[in-house]
Structures are given as structure tokens and as C-alpha cells.
Design brief:
The protein is an alpha+beta fold and 116 residues long. It has 2 helices and 5 strands, in the order E-E-E-E-H-E-H. It has helices at 60-74, 84-92; strands at 12-17, 22-27, 30-40, 43-51, 78-81. The protein has a 5-stranded mixed sheet. The longest helix is centred in the middle third of the chain and has 15 residues, at 60-74. Residues 1-5 and 111-116 have low confidence and may be disordered.
């Protein structure tokens, strides 16, 4: 049986704007919102998840956080979940918990994980 994807939106794209310190989410050409961060020594302090009001409660915040955490994972970086939404997400989806700075600091991804 195939695994259910975490992200249901098909045309999502996330653009990194390091200068602004944010990951911006688009659905097609439509700007949806962003996840703001500050990076220091390979650790991203995920500070704010902001989704435009007309797109709230449609799974966009979840999709954005999932995409960002997958990128962080692939880059072998860590996070600080200052944003309450990100902290709740990490509680719910424990497969990303090891990305929290101070957790499992041996730098190795969990068994069976292949970098994206």
C-alpha cells in the first residue's frame, strides 16, 4: 500500500530568501505566506509562520513547515522551534524531532533516511 503524502497541494513551491530570512510559499503564482527564520552556525531559529488569512485552515502552514524541515534535513542543519506552530508540528510529527538543536547531536539522520 502506498504511503499517504504529507503534502496534498500539487503546485506548491517554496522559495528561500536568505536576505529577508524567510521561506516564501506559493501555490502556482499565488503568494500564500512565509516561515521566517534566523540562521547561525547551521541552526535555523524558525520564528514565525505567517499564512495570509484567506488561505488559513487549508493545510498551507503544515505544507510549508514540512517542506522547510525536509530542506533542513537534506542540508544536514538543525532547527530551534521558536514558532509555536512549528513546535506543535514537531510534537505531532516525531520523525522530524531529531532536527531540533540539542537532540541527537551526533549529526546522523535516523536509519533509513535518504537525503532529498
Amino acid at each position: 500500500m502506498p504511503q499517504t503524502p504529507l503534502i496534498a497541494h500539487e503546485k506548491l513551491r517554496v522559495l528561500l530568501d536568505a536576505e529577508q530570512g524567510r521561506f516564501s510559499l506559493f501555490d502556482g503564482e499565488e503568494y500564500i505566506g512565509f516561515l521566517g527564520y534566523v540562521e547561525e552556525d547551521g541552526v535555523l531559529d524558525l520564528q514565525h509562520t505567517i499564512i495570509k488569512e484567506e488561505f488559513s485552515r487549508h493545510g498551507y502552514a503544515r505544507a510549508l513547515v514540512t517542506i522547510v524541515l525536509e530542506r533542513v534535513w537534506a542540508l544536514d542543519k538543525r532547527v530551534i522551534p521558536t514558532c509555536s506552530y512549528v513546535a506543535q508540528y514537531l510534537d505531532r510529527f516525531s520523525q522530524y524531532q531529531w532536527l531540533v538543536a540539542g537532540q541527537d547531536d551526533d549529526g546522523a539522520a535516523p536509519q533509513g533516511r535518504h537525503a532529498a
